[in-house]
Amino acid sequence: MAGSTTRNRLSLPQQYLFLQRSKTISGEGVLGPGRLEWRFQAQPTPLSRSYQVTLVLERDGTPDVRVVEPDLRLLAGGRDLPHIYHNPDRLCLYLPGTGQWDASKRLDLNIIPWIHLWLIYFEEWIVSDDWKGGGKHPGEDDPDEGSRALRRSLRRMR
């Protein structure tokens, strides 16, 4: 329902407070007019490397997530990065238009865990060259087909 998303929309200051008060996410951020930026270290597993991540959310926008360090392209060893939006490189964390993310959802409870999960799949991909995170890769043919298939699957689950 489009109305419920608008009615339950979380403001940028609310999102910022949730991030600041989280007991599991340590980072620092900047809250400005119409824009929230949060920087943090993500280490998805105890055996993982540490990643410097920047999350930006603009009013009425969608989360823009970038790994600042280390350089994912360097780690990929010349292979095309999976599940990335390009120019600039941003993580693909959910399938747009499916309701997985909307402005009523909290960054600390949705996007941040999805970042960690993406990084786990990325580390596995570095070794196996097989993206096991599922989903639809940006730029694949017929973006509506993935949405239709997802909707059909979700209807079957009800």
From TrEMBL:
Q: Tell me which InterPro entries the record gives.
A: E2-CBASS
Q: Where is this region: Disordered?
A: 133-158
Q: Where is the composition biased (Basic residues)?
A: 149-158
The record places domain Type II CBASS E2 protein at 32-138
Classification via Pfam families: E2-CBASS (PF26395)
Query: Which first-to-last residue range defines the signal peptide?
Result: none
Provide ranges: composition bias, Basic and acidic residues: 133-148
- What's the name of the protein? Type II CBASS E2 protein domain-containing protein
High-level lineage = Bacteria, Pseudomonadati, Pseudomonadota, Alphaproteobacteria, Rhodobacterales
